[in-house]
Amino acid sequence: xxxxxxxxxxxxxxxxxxxxxxxxxxIYHSYxxxxxxxxxxxxxxxxxxxxxxxxxxxxxxxxFNQMSPIVDMISGMLFLNKPTREIPQELKYFETSITPSGDxxxxxxxxxxxxxxxxxxxxxxxxxxxxxxxxxxxxxDRVDNKLNPYSVLYLPFKIxxxxxxxxxxxxxxxxxxxxYIDHSDPFLKSENIYKYTLWDREKAVxxxxxxxRNEVLPGEERYHNLGFVPFRFVSWRDDNSDFIAETVCEDIxxxxxxxxxxxxxxxxxxxSGTFKMLAYPTKDGSTPDELSQGGVGPLSILPYDLISHxxxxxxxxxxxxxxxxxxxINFYMTEILKKVGLSTDEMKEFVKSGTAxxxxxxKMRALLTSGAMMMSKLEEWMMFTAAKWxxxxxxxxxxxxxxxxxxxxxTEVTLLTGLLVHPVKSLKIEVLSLLVRKLLGxxxxxxxxxxxxxxxxxxxxxxxxxxxxxxxxxxANKILNKPQEKVANEx
Length: 491
Hints:
The protein is an alpha+beta fold. It has helices spanning 15-32, 34-38, 51-60, 67-76, 106-119, 139-144, 248-274, 289-294, 323-339, 344-353, 362-389, 406-419, 425-440, 446-458, 472-480, 484-490, and strands at 84-86, 122-127, 150-154, 159-164, 171-177, 180-182, 191-200, 203-210, 217-218, 222-223, 231-234, 277-279, 313-315, 397-399. It is built from 16 helices and 14 strands. The strands form four sheets. Strands 4, 5, 6, 7, 8, 9 and 10 form a seven-stranded antiparallel sheet that branches. Strands 3-2-11 form a three-stranded antiparallel sheet, covered by helices on one side.
């Protein structure tokens, strides 16, 4: 089949997007976790490791999600105070219905935008449904039939290519991936429908290909009369104004990958140190039936060949060897926390001194200020573009709070740290100490708090589940041996 000129659209990719795609995939999988992460191939095979051992180790590997609580908490802090909005009367529908299906209101949609744009570059398209002007004549008809302009969030994997005018700095065109799987007929095998939409300053055209080798067919040209491309790149930080974000989450995701691999190594050492091999000296290398059939576990007596002058012994990893792994993982966790303005060393001083001023919040404050500014400008642009779809020129005003008090940040830091579920003893000690000070610091004598601190540091039996956010109050109660109701009443 001859290749037509439209086939190029399905092969090109913007070089900057292509270069960063692997990093963005790592960030996305780190955020989603679960099967998405375990099946993405982030566990590294050691050169001396057999494929069989690696396969078994991969089955046992567990990913502890550091990305999700950090992203959700930091992006959610933009909504600690409700954004101030001045929405024109013509766009009031934006507050209650902003997506094509109408299932999300403005706040719900913007929370998604905040989270994903914190992680990596994404974009928002303002589109409008097609309708027959003869059938839909009034504004009420459009509202009743949900035919208002709507917003679509595009993750970077769905942005194929674009061109920016170097003089004006504005988009000239952008190619978006709207592919889907057609599974409408239960009697037919599902089919991949590749659909790319090319937007420019005047129109939008869908290009469709069914299957891998079928001919690309262009759809009808849809003219929008906006005078600009109704798409906007969004990210919390773009240092060189090239629309492609530099994000702190790239470092966090790579460190999380290191933790994932080191946790797997540590798990392997724990298993090897628990189930060791028995070195049993014999003359001809044969194994006694008692051992080959039932193992050494049920035996009360284990005879061996005295002539060998070597007693049977268990060989394998020593459990004391996990200490370097714990230190390495704790170091990685510290680096993750520092990326968003947390320092475990300063937190330690805060726990001992009882003052929140020891926590350095400048990195977090800078992130939030940048995010608030981006969200405000984006939402104003969304309103302006939606109004242009209806042939109007109105502006809305939006302000996301960018000034946060130390107390607000300290409270969120406490919750964030409690959400970082991780089986590293030293980290759990820090979290537990911080929670006890935060909850009960004003109600107990200093010597009592010091005694509790010592108990925390020597207590090694702490369940990981205790650090779920809903259990943080209960943790403090367990340490103090007090009923939860009594502590609550005292507070």
